[in-house]
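Narrative of activities, Objective 1.

The group set out to show that a structural description can be obtained from nothing but a protein's sequence at a throughput compatible with the screening campaign. Below is one input-output pair from the validation batch, recorded exactly as produced.
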Amino acid sequence: MADIRDQIEFEFKIHGKGSLHADGMAMWLTKQRGLQGPVFGSADRFEGLGIFFDTYKNNRPGVVFPYVMAMVGDGQTPYDHQNDGKANELAGCSARGLRGATVPTKARLTYYQDRNLRLDLQYKNEDDWIKCFEVDKVSIPSVTYLGFSAETGELSDNHDIVKVDTRNLYQAPAYSGPSGSSGKQKGKSYDPNRASSGGSWVWFFVKIVLFFAVCGGGYTGFTMWRASNRGSRF
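Output recorded for this entry:
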């Protein structure tokens, strides 16, 4: 992952019975692979990116939960459990209604290498994406593993990953030509007028071939008919 410009979109569902529930789930882009631990079910002191969907409020006054936040780990810094990641937060947003949503719940992470990171959420209405955050000058390891984890404690909840799609959004820039040139690219290029002209010539020759085929068939039939009439006279 993290190759020039990547996008990860996944559908998930956080649900359960009762009004008390915990603790949440996470999406990971880290150098470590599949290590269990205390940070939403995965290892602490990770190196890479963690997106946390926190459904239980411990100690963050003035913040509405569920709360979604990003943390870029350096491999040394621990997650701030006591304050729900406040000391580690790169960016985040409140997402009331995310848990137990009546529409498919989705998240879409777009990363432009070493430049920009953006997270959009869908949980209120289908095809209604809400920007959670967008930050610049974000750098994560060039080679990472994509993973998901979840955690419960004394309280329980269900965390389902329904579907995951990844795509690379990189597009090569248009050729502008060498400095001082007219900017026209050498070599072959598509010309719709020339293509149309070529197609009309092909159709012209096809019609000629069909014409001679019909004439040849008619002449052959006429010859056979004349030969048959001559034979019937004797």
